[in-house]
Amino acid sequence: QVQLVESGGGLVQAGGSLRVSCAASGSTFSAYAMGWFRQAPGKEREFVAAISRYGSRTYYLDSVKGRFTISRDNAKSTMALQMNSLKPEDTAVYYCAAKWENSGTVLTKEQEYPYWGQGTQVTVSS
Fold first, then answer.
1. 37-62 as b/e: b if 16+ CB within 10 A
2. What 8-state DSSP symbol labels residue 118?
3. 8 A C-beta contact, residue 49 and residue 82
């Protein structure tokens, strides 16, 4: 239904900033709630941040609150995650995900998202 492509990953020094983006195509972007998830080597994929259809509600993993900001631009069918004050433990493959938003949906849960991008690597060096 919708195709997602992440970009903007890379290598950054601890304390630095990076912005990863997700471009959507194939459907009406504004109909989807969007989320960011990440998976570090040897670990399970975890929720990072999510945003509702029009950006009125946002959710964050506790460890990234105050450092990461999720946003979306429905006119451009894009979604982004601004990451500041990066730490080595933020190193992971970051994935964007999408789902048709409906009442009662918990946007912090991976199983709620049927559409996923290929991921982009974010590496934070010490």
1. bbeeeeeebebbbbbbbeeeeebbbe
2. -
3. no
3-state secondary structure 7-28: ECCEEEECCCCEEEEEEEECCC
Of 5, 6, 3, 4, whose CA–CA distance to 122 is shortest? 6
Q: Are strands 58-60 and 46-51 parallel, antiparallel or unpaired?
A: antiparallel
Specify the amino acid at residue 68. Answer: F
pLDDT band at 104 (very low <50, low <70, confident <90, very high): confident
CA distances (Å), 119 to each of 51, 56, 58, 96, in order?
Answer: 18, 25, 21, 7
pLDDT at 27: 84
pLDDT per residue as tens digits for the range 29-73: 999 999 999 999 999 999 999 999 999 999 999 999 999 999 999
How far is Cα 38 from Cα 100, in angstroms, rounded to an integer? 21
Q: How many residues does the chain have?
A: 126
Structure tokens at 17: 């900033």
